[in-house]
């Protein structure tokens, strides 16, 4: 049963791809009566717009233009997942002008609705003062296994070894970028889901949230 809605509350859920943060964030939002925002979709949609224009996602001008022209319909596209979208999202996310274009959008959303936001820099950059910050992670191998199951479940042909290599390459790019690198906030609670099923991970995350918030 959901608890009483908490308008204005922002919960930051960060971590690498396929660690389970999206599933956790959605369930926490439902439990707390908050909106949910997958901020990664903003970068995926930006990358996809650049690809649609036959441009290079590393092209700062093209990527910024795509970020500033996003519409809600872009976030509902069915082609925002998969290796090509992953690479494009990681490339545009490394561009300062793109991050600046999307930063106010994310902050306005959280402040207006109260929300659980999941991404890679929510607790470090977007909402550094969020009262609850989770950093969700898992081993490279387990994350690759989950992503492989996700892709094949959608009918996408994927090789587990290639998926693992691409996850590691994206991790390296996200962690080494000069602007808003992927890393846990100093005051984030780290949750390793490698050996946890969905219910156990959710129970652990909810316990953290309840421990940080007043009754």
From TrEMBL:
Keywords, in A-Z order: ATP-binding, Cytoplasm, Kinase, Nucleotide-binding, Transferase
One annotated GO molecular function: CMP kinase activity
Domain Cytidylate kinase: 11-202
One GO term describing the cellular component: cytoplasm
Entry EC no(s): 2.7.4.25
Residues bound to ATP: 15-23
Localization per record: Cytoplasm
InterPro entries (UniProt xref): Cytidylate_kin, Cytidylate_kinase_dom, P-loop_NTPase
Highest rank taxon of the organism: Bacteria
Catalytic activity: dCMP + ATP = dCDP + ADP; CMP + ATP = CDP + ADP
GO biological process: pyrimidine nucleotide metabolic process
Pfam annotation, one family: Cytidylate_kin
SUPFAM superfamilies: P-loop containing nucleoside triphosphate hydrolases (SSF52540)
EC top class, as a word: transferase
Primary location: cytoplasm
Record-stated family: Belongs to the cytidylate kinase family. Type 1 subfamily.
Protein name, UniProt field: Cytidylate kinase
Organism: Teichococcus deserti
Gene name for this UniProt entry: cmk
């Amino acid at each position: 049963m959901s608890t009483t809605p908490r308008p204005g509350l922002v919960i930051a859920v960060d971590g690498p791809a396929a660690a389970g943060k999206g599933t956790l964030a959605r369930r926490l939002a439902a439990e707390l009566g908050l909106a949910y925002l997958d901020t990664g979709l903003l970068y995926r949609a930006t990358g996809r717009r650049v690809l649609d224009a036959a441009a290079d996602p590393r092209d700062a001008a093209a990527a910024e233009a795509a970020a500033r022209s996003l519409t809600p319909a872009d976030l509902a596209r069915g082609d925002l997942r998969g290796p090509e979208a992953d690479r494009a999202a990681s490339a545009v996310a490394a561009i300062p002008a793109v991050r600046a274009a999307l930063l106010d959008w994310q902050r306005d959303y959280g402040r207006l609705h109260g929300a659980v936001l999941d991404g890679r820099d929510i607790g470090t950059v977007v909402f550094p003062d969020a009262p609850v910050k989770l950093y969700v992670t898992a081993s490279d191998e387990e994350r690759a296994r989950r992503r492989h199951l996700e892709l094949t479940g959608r009918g996408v042909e994927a090789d587990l070894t290639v998926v693992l290599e691409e996850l590691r390459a994206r991790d390296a790019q996200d962690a080494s970028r000069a602007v808003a690198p992927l890393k846990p906030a100093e005051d984030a609670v780290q949750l390793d889901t490698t050996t946890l099923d969905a219910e156990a991970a959710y129970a652990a995350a909810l316990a953290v949230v309840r421990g940080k918030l007043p009754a």
